[in-house]
TPR repeat-containing protein (Oscillochloris trichoides DG-6), 1060 residues
Amino acid sequence: MPHESTLSRWCARIIEACWLLALTLVPIYFNLFSARHFEPDKAMALRALVVIAATLGLIRGLENLRPITFDVGLWQRLRAIPLAVPTLVYTLVFLITTATSVVPATSFWGSYQRLQGTYTNLTYILLGLLMVVTIRSRAQIERIITISLIAGVTTAAYGVIQHLQLDPLPWKGDVITRVASTLGNSIFVAAYLIMLVPLALYRMVVAWSGARSAAPSPQPRNDWLRALAQGLIILSGMLLLLAVIKFGAAVRTVDFRYWWFFPAAVMSASALWWSITLGSERRLPLWPAFAMLALLMLFSSQFALTATTGIQVASNADDAPHAYDWAAWLLGSVVSGGVGLGLGRWLPVRSDPPSRLSLGITAVVSGGAALLMITTLVLSQSRGPFLGFGASMFLFCSLLLWAALRHARNQQQVRRAARLRTLLFAWVGAALLAATFLISFNLSDAPFFNQLRSVPYLGRMGQLLEIESGTGLVRRLIWLGDAHGGGAVGMVRADPWHALVGWGPESMFVAFNPFFPPSLANVEARGASPDRSHMAYLDELVTKGMIGLVSYLFLIISFIALALRLMQRSPSWPQQVFFIAMLSMVAAHLVEGGFGIPIVATLMLLWVALALTLVSGALEGHYSLQLAAPVADEPEAKRRNPTKGRSRPSVRAQRAKQSPALYAGLLLVALWFTWSSNLAPVYADMRYQAAQGVSEQAGSDINRLVVAMDDYLATIRSSPNEDFYYLGLARNLMTMAGVMYARGVPLGTADPQANMADLLHLDNDDALVGFIQRSTSLGMLSYAEAVLQRAYQLNPLNKDHAANLGRLNSYWYNLSNDPQRLQQALEWYDQVARLAPNDVTLINERAGAMIDLGRAYQESGEASQAELWYTQADELLIHSSELDPRYADTAMRQGDLAQLRGDRAAATSFYERGIELAPVMASQNVDRLAERLDHDPALLTRLHTAFLAAAERYAARLERNVDDATLRSQTARLYAVAGLLAAYAGASEAALAPYQQAVSLQPTSAEYSQNYTLILSDTQHYQEALAEANRMLIVLQGSGRSNEIANVEQLIKAINNVAR
């Protein structure tokens, strides 16, 4: 083996530390201080680690560089290395499709939502390559498995905590019914865990098999204590992470100064976990404990300093019942780690092979880890991962029994082989019965199966073929589209070029718009465009075309063939089980990918599995991973005693003189690249999150809006090429323009010189204050327009940028009454129509701008020009209703248009249709509707009837969901609106029953009670009116709502006066 320098050895150690840290950081770490929290932050953490590791790998390669000769051609040698050619082809396809992408920059760097571009995918490949060229022992592979399992157990445990309703974090979504753990999505956490279960089973099987032939423990007490010490160290890391999560929920600051604490805690926990992988033949190192203490000292110093400044708030037990005790859990982590480390160092070093007891403990613990991960998988209720898990377990058990059968036959153990053969047939038969049951469960309408579908956890497996509702309908529409949009399949079939090379990695978000099925908007958020098809293989076709799918399948099939070949050729039973586990890991990922989205954690594990399989085969001697054989080392004596009179130094000596500067330069470049491409975007997103928080709470407070503006500008300075961030700044500027207008600040004039560069120069408080003081409403809108135009320049295929410029110009018109702004709005909406022809929301907005322009012409006396615009708007709205007949906004706009044309009866018909489709939305504009109909009693009665019918439909739903507070509030609102319209129509008696229903549903609503009281008084039911008013007075007095109390008292006094 070639001699390695000290620097080379340290590089190898740090590289290994980087990939071990990646195995814990990626699944565990999430960033509550950023706007995206999960996937992009995980991707950037992995990318940063791999950049550092790759740079050190390059330095290590230069340090060990020796002259090489090729006994055969380079291509032939490359072909001799398994998976080398498939990986190279897969990499080249990524680069080619990035170059041909419709959005090359996004394809390379990744989208804002996912960050899964070519750079991130090259990171996965490079991570695997680093493992291949650095791993030199079986112990390193086992260390990777151990760390992966600990990370999986930590993730699974947090999922169980969520299900038990002990999660300290107040997540917006439901993480109790379907746990999401540290990956932020129930499908994601399940997809990650199913790839780790085979590793736990591998450990269990190998340990259990080894225990049968291992010697009894000479010192059982020491084995139990060693296991206890390791368990306490693992627990210490987990308690540390839970304490930090609790701290994040309990202690709030005005900024994100504690952002570093969680990733640092993961690093500290990883160091603790690493220490137990060194084996019993080495004493536990102390430096992980010192690192943890240093972390806690740094945190304590910052916490104490921040507490004295008064800018942080700590929650109490009432506000954060599962988080306020974070300090106790932190202390528990220190105690657990201290006891575990002390016990581990006290135990004697053991050089003999593991005993039967220690292997038995390992088997039981590994089985427990598998059980915990399976439990969290069940709690996720994710059907795609369930199928992946089932396929993985079928493959693992089938291959395991087959390998055991082969081993028994080779050992001529006839009886054992017969039992294994019977067991294998029984297992395959049971699997076939389970598959038959699953098919029947999904196809049969028998009463038994219908009842079974309502059983928690199990029932979802009977809805795999459900494509008419829920996520099944979403997937069908994304995959196949509808009558108006072709969906992902339409993208593939659009033209031969894109069928061959796809639209580009990470391009679906913008490329999907022309193929968007309008029906999808009825089951997903309106205006949203899917960035994934929820099927990995279809995504390959969409983003990288046929060459992408073929290269991916080439890689996967090559891996399967390699793993099967190694499993058959390996003489070692543990190695056979290892290759079976690797195959099962990949099988779980492949099956789950048919229904889901590959994420950072699962793609990382995929390449880890490929790398470990490849390295294991090389360690067993099945092939070599060297591209060429190095020239024989120069004899030691010759190196020490060079030829006399030699005046020129050796090449190695010359390189040694240049190395420090070269290595330093490489490290500086790596650090700069890590900051600019990975850390700066995270910082930018944290500033963006801070800006959003301030902006949402600002209301009309101009000072807080200025603070938000400063954060938005800092965000853009840190990540100037992320077009998404410009939208927040533009929204903030438009809000400030509206606040100025509301405060009576003169509109001013548009600023033709407004530009983005001037805003970025506002980098201090004085500059910001000066900008605000000299700005007017229209001047502020000019800068908002410049910001949105910059976003459009960065990503012209994003429909939202053109749409936002159309919205801004429409808003500008509302302030200035300048028809030119409507013309500009329509120009932008014309671009939107080309980008997203099937988006009915944007079609309606375009029609709305036409209606506003027609109204402007009508008010100026140009009736013919107004009718021209009204006709165009009508045609658009008719087209919109054809695309999506269920969109209520279309009917409401058609009603407005009919009213402007003077046909109030037709307008009422359209309004009735809108109320039928979306009564709650329509109820928000009831006064405007009454005004549009000129308070015509007959027409208002029709609206009253429509709202009353909707209220009764909602009331029927409420009877089936009596605990749904939102539905109760909506039902009360609809009854109240029905009563109000009856009152507007002069039918006070008809208003009584609806208002009575509204009050019975929302008895604490002062608005409903007062309106009901007034209707009772108007209909001369004075005693009932007084009874209702007095009831509400008691309610208000109990809640201390003083302003409303005064109103009710005045109302009682007025009723008494009338009743006399």
Q: What stands out?
A: DSSP finds 45 helices and four strands in the chain. Residues 279 and 350 are 9 Å apart (CA to CA).
